Amino acid sequence: MRGLIERLCTSYGPAGREEQVRAAIITEIVKLNESYTVDTLGNLVVHKSAAAGKKILVAAHMDEIGLMVTYIEENGFLRFTNLGGIPPGILWGLRVVFADGLVGVIGQEKIEGTRKPDLKQHYIDIGAADREEAQARVKIGDSAVYFAPVYQAGKRLSAKSLDNRIGCVVLLETLKRLGGLTLPVEVYFAFTVQEEVGLRGARTAAYRLKPDYGLAVDVTRVGDTPEPDFKTGVALGKGPAIKIMDSAVICHPGVTRLMQDVAEKKGIPFQPEVLERGGTDAGAIHLTREGVPSGALSIPCRYIHTPAEMVDLDDVENSIALLTELLKSTDW
Amino acid sequence: MLIKELSVIPGVSGDETRVRNYIREKVTALGLPSHTDSLGNLYVSKEGRRRGAPPELMLTAHMDEVGLMVSSIEKSGHLRFYKVGGVYEEALISKPVKIGTADILGVIGAKAIHLQKKEERKKALTIENLYIDIGAKDKEDAEKVVKVGDYVSFYSEASRYEDIIRGKAFDNRAGCAALLEILKRDYPCSFTVVFTVQEEVGIRGARVAAYRVNPRLALVIETTIAADTPEIKEHELSTSLGGGPAFTVKDDSVIVHPHLLDRLVQVAGEQKRPYQFRRFGGSFTDAGAIATAGGGVAAAVISTPCRYIHSPLSMLNLKDWHHLVEIVDGFIRSIDEKGLEI
């Protein structure tokens, strides 16, 4: 699994430009001898059919936050806009990488007084001497993501884009463990696009697939660090979080209860999650067509949207266990 | 001139009737079938010379403009109002307006400058300090001609000096005019044109239009911020007047499908026309609603740059608009000739 995490987390896939990470996931799907489809917006779907039973959409987004080039200065510096929630305060000195492997450094203009820096005061330096040289490497509309290695210390693993490649890992590992089993439910494993810019891929995937239930697998914020910026009981290492609510969805109590029941019955640790700021694909799925009862399984994660997000590998293992058991459940 | 004629018609979001009637008349005169849905979107089917193939391309432009709505009537006969869409509030003072379907004339007033205290003069006047004055002597008098809920639109003449035109609501009557120009032409393929409603209040009309039409590809014709004014840095100016039509790479509502963007750039290049990229990554367009409608649509946006949008008087360069029309024309033909894999 460590290898899989490394492959996905070092893949390039900002919102709207998911080709490379999608190809990496397809490689894993092919290894499992599963077939797949890709839709208009780029959502990747693996269908596990069953003779009868409810249809469940399990969604993990494969996109990551990024930067998109909007202007190339005369002296070769690139100006950019954000794809999703890039925190402007951490950018200075970070390295970013483009689709073709080109690496740039983020610089910052002089900030007057005590003002907080905003994106417009930053630029990407790709080492080009002038506009012409820069244009030979980059064009407007090209996107970059954080350039960061994967690092593990004990049970804790740190990487860029664990949000939400770790969710993709949970889906792929679950798919592997379910292997040749005949399931009591029909499952669509969807690796969705453009979650970071507004849950866009999940909306259209859910429309196409018409599920009876929706389940998002994504990371969630924790409150177990010194002076966290908001209060939550969710902590690293205490098991997957079962979402009750976030700003985009109030989870269906039936789905939440089933998740808790399965976890208790199988002795899988879990924690309840109420996330005041943030949303996941469940927010888009549950409002599709006539409404889809939905829930979410969250992997606790520190430093979300930085180049060094951090998860606990026991939480990842328990998330896979919970999702696997949930899809084997006859109580949907 | 189409843009000027469209510009002066009142058509605040939710009150697009007169704009729609004008467009429908033009479309009917071209012999094209059209219909309207319950929100007020106007659909026009453009059948190509080669019949039979189901249209997979949808082109849209929103008909509505930002404006105001009467919220209450004071005892004195002055009207208080809401904003409809992202009106440039500080620009409202002393502007003439038209109210309701009878086009009652009013002026946006505030406390006389002579009576303002020193501190008051330093602050921009916002909606709380403003009212619409129709010259009524009291509430009863005002109620004879206006009522709460009446729409208020800017009353601005459209004028032209060489290639520069000035007027209200170029966002997005310039887009509507471009699509009317396209509809006059002859194409081998079929496509659907939709003039949408309520874009300025949250891309509402386009969402249901995309659901009904169910296209594979969509091109949104828009009018976008040109901020090539003295205080703005080059990388923040978004677009410049006279720099050619602008392609969007992303905004807050959509990431433009890269294959569509590449094709637009290719067409502009083949036609040797100027173009620019919108440098501002924010705000929203109908493309956002369209891309996520139904099972998903590959969508792109092309815009005429325009200064001072969302104010009573905006300004654009007709050369940019002409280039936009030709690029849209070339794009339709290119999709027909070469197809487009998504």
Number of helices of chain A: 8
Number of domains of chain B: 2
Query: How many DSSP E strands of chain B?
Result: 17
Helix content of chain B: 25-40%
Mind summarizing the main beta sheet of chain A?
A: 8 strands, mixed
The CATH top-level class label of the largest domain in chain A: Alpha Beta
Indicate the radius of gyration of chain A in whole angstroms. Answer: 20 Å
CATH architecture of the largest domain in chain A, by name, is 3-Layer(aba) Sandwich
In terms of DSSP E residues, the strand content of chain B is 15-25%
CA-based gyration radius of chain B: 21 Å
Number of helices of chain B: 9
SSE order of chain A in H/E notation?
HHEEEEEEEEHEEEHEHEEHEHEEH
Question: CATH homologous superfamily name of the largest domain in chain A?
Answer: Zn peptidases
Characterize the overall form of chain A: globular
Identify low-pLDDT runs of chain B.
none
CATH topology of the largest domain in chain A: Aminopeptidase
Q: Given the helix and strand composition of chain A, which structural class is it?
A: alpha+beta
Task: Report the CATH topology name of the largest domain in chain B.
Answer: Aminopeptidase
Secondary structure topology:
The complex is a heterodimer of chains A (332) and B (342).
Chain A lengths: L1 H8 L9 H13 L5 E2 L5 E5 L6 E7 L4 E7 L5 E6 L11 E4 L4 E6 L13 E4 L5 H7 L5 E4 L4 E3 L2 E4 L2 H17 L7 E7 L7 H10 L3 E9 L19 E5 L7 H13 L5 E4 L7 H4 L8 E8 L7 E4 H16 L4
Parallel strand pairs in A: 3-12, 3-13, 13-16, 14-15
Antiparallel strand pairs in A: 1-2, 2-12, 4-5, 4-9, 6-7, 6-9, 7-8, 10-11, 11-17, 14-16
Chain B lengths: L1 H6 L9 H13 L4 E3 L5 E5 L10 E6 L4 E7 L5 E6 L11 E4 L4 E6 L8 H5 L8 E3 L5 H5 L7 E4 L4 E3 L2 E4 L2 H14 L7 E6 L7 H10 L3 E10 L19 E2 L10 H13 L5 E2 L8 H6 L6 E10 L6 E4 H21 L4
Parallel strand pairs in B: 3-12, 3-13, 13-16, 14-15
Antiparallel strand pairs in B: 1-2, 2-12, 4-5, 4-9, 6-7, 6-9, 7-8, 10-11, 11-17, 14-16, 16-17
Helix pairs in contact in B: 5-9, 7-9
